[in-house]
Specification:
Layout (H helix, E strand, L loop, with lengths): L5 H13 L4 H13 L1 H6 L2 H4 L2 H5 L4 E10 L5 E12 L5 E7 L5 H17 L5 E7 L8 H15 L8 E4 L6 H15 L19 H19 L8 E4 L4 H12 L3 E6 L3 E4 L6 H10 L7 H4 L4 E4 L11 E3 L9 H9 L4 E3 L8 H10 L2 E3 L1 H4 L2 H15 L5 H25 L6 H20 L3
Parallel strand pairs: 3-4, 3-5, 6-7, 6-10, 10-11, 11-12
Antiparallel strand pairs: 1-2, 2-4, 7-8, 8-9
Helix pairs in contact: 1-2, 2-6, 2-18, 6-18, 7-8, 9-10, 9-16, 9-17, 13-14, 16-17, 17-18
This protein binds NADPH dihydro-nicotinamide-adenine-dinucleotide phosphate (NDP) and (2Z)-2-iminopentanedioic acid (2IT).
Length: 448
């Protein structure tokens, strides 16, 4: 899409020129800037005070070498990143991703989206993201530990409970956070809430593990109910089989739906009787094995090679929970032809712009990641609060707060879309509501 507003077109051109070879970042910025057309028309002061020029430029990019020794005694070198994108409303906050596909452009897109997502939670957290091209798959626990210790040895210089608070993302779960926290504590000799997603014995919050997946379902449920529908009796297709996918599947089933698929980067399983979530937890969280193993214990289920095939399974609701751009236009059209009624994004930017366009054109319910997957980071912020108070809430207390936060995000995004003349467009609504909060804070701080 081309911009009607000349200024926004120029900002976009500059982002592309300054960040060459980073298509995911361009994609994330383009979507937000498109949503800002009516905002600029109403608030031309955002042009003069420079908040849009500033918001697309990270406050700080940290890039470092991560040397570690593998089990054969060979030195391995990976790249580490932390992008501290925006601290207008709170300390930088966002996950760390360990995956071979990680490069600066992936961390930039994730960090940029995190600014608006975090603002939507209503909690005081800025936006950041980090990670490495390290692949934890197939590594021993000791290799993962040595890598995490080396990664933190450099990262520790730049983070802190009031500065920048990392957490998990793809390839970074409880095990990695434990090793990272242990090394930070050793280096700094301080016990603070510098990371979230910590274990329950050392400052972690109850319900953080479940939060992104549960929050996704709370958001989708609010959206469905607002349109006279619900999860009850619906068939749900979920991609991924990691942290977000597992707890989305668990909550969707509790809300009365039948989840029929889970996937990984190799393929997907289809279980006509409904996915056995306890079995998936055992395969992924305990055995760290592939989703293919599922059919060994459930002979009526089928395994299919190729992860894209998951979108050909007929469903009422689709919850993409694996990775960016996993639903392209072709997959979106197949979902629509099969009668999908709602798509809610658990992963970050899982739908391509063409796929989003197809969903919106068809008039189905579409929940964008920034809004619908904000439950993870929201609960991370609740973990920070509990750490500051040196106190912990019960599972039920945290879960109730998470539920309220997700319902509020739905209503705020929905109201912003309506106010700016795009009723029902939650992509625009989420981008606008998140942007306005951060932009007001940036304006108040002056040129900094
Ligand atoms: P996990 O590492 O726990 O699981 C990732 C899952 O996605 C795995 O099943 C993995 O399969 C699959 N996957 C990863 N990369 C690809 C790929 N290139 N193609 C196909 N499948 C892939 O990560 P999470 O569940 O934590 O994260 C999933 C998504 O949710 C990400 O987009 C993340 O940014 C987002 N997210 C996570 C939050 C959190 O709190 N953890 C919060 C908000 C968003 P395989 O094992 O084969 O790699
Ligand atoms: O994308 C995300 O919001 C996350 N990976 C969670 C970040 C966090 O700080 O909990």
């Amino acid at each position: 899409m081309s911009f009607q507003n000349q200024y926004l077109a120029e900002v976009m051109d500059k982002v592309i020129a300054r960040n060459p070879g980073e298509p995911e970042f361009h994609q994330a910025v383009q979507e937000v800037l498109e949503s800002l057309e009516p905002v600029i028309a109403k608030h031309p002061e955002y042009i003069t005070c420079g908040v849009i020029d500033s918001i697309v430029e990270p406050e700080r990019i940290i890039k470092f070498r991560v040397p570690w020794v593998d089990d054969q005694g060979k030195v391995q070198i990976n790249r580490g990143f932390r992008i501290q994108f925006n601290s207008a409303i709170g300390p930088y906050k966002g996950g760390l991703r360990f995956h071979p596909s990680v490069y600066e452009g992936i961390i930039k897109f994730l960090g940029f989206e995190q600014i608006f997502k975090n603002a939507l939670t209503g909690l005081p957290i800025g936006g950041g993201k980090g990670g490495s091209d390290f692949d934890p798959k197939g590594k021993s626990d000791m290799e993962v530990m040595r890598f995490c210790q080396s990664f933190m040895t450099e990262l520790a210089k730049y983070i802190g409970a009031d500065t920048d608070v990392p957490a998990g993302d793809i390839g970074v779960g409880g095990r990695e956070i434990g090793y990272l926290f242990g090394q930070y504590k050793r280096l700094r000799d301080e016990f603070t809430g510098v990371l979230t997603g910590k274990g329950l014995t050392y400052g972690g919050s109850l319900a953080r593990t479940e939060a992104t997946g549960y929050g996704l379902c709370y958001f989708a449920d609010a959206m469905l109910r607002d349109h006279g529908s619900s999860f009850e009796g619906k068939t749900v297709v979920i991609s991924g089989s990691g942290n977000v996918a597992i707890y989305a599947a668990e909550k969707a089933a509790v809300l009365g739906a039948k989840v029929v698929t889970m996937s990984d980067s190799n393929g997907y399983v289809y279980d006509p009787d409904g996915i056995d979530v306890a079995l998936v937890k055992d395969i992924k969280e305990v055995r760290r094995a592939r989703i293919k193993e599922y059919v060994v214990a459930r002979p009526k289920a089928e395994y299919h090679e190729g992860c894209k095939g998951v979108w050909t399974v007929k469903c009422d609701i689709a919850l993409p929970c694996a990775t960016q751009n996993e639903i392209d236009e072709e997959s979106a059209k197949i979902l629509l032809a099969n009668g999908v009624q709602a798509v809610a994004e658990g992963a970050n930017m899982p739908s391509t712009p063409e796929a989003i366009h197809a969903f919106q054109k068809a008039g189905i319910l579409f929940a964008p990641a920034k809004a619908s997957n904000a439950g993870g980071v929201a609960t991370s912020a609740l973990e920070m609060s509990q750490n500051s108070m040196r106190y912990s809430w019960t599972f039920e207390e945290v879960d109730a707060k998470l539920h309220d936060i997700m319902v509020n995000i739905y209503h705020n995004a929905s109201a912003a879309a309506k106010e700016y003349g795009m009723e029902g467009n939650l992509v625009a609504g989420a981008n606008i509501a998140g942007f306005l909060k951060v932009a007001e804070a940036m304006k108040a701080h002056g040129v900094v």
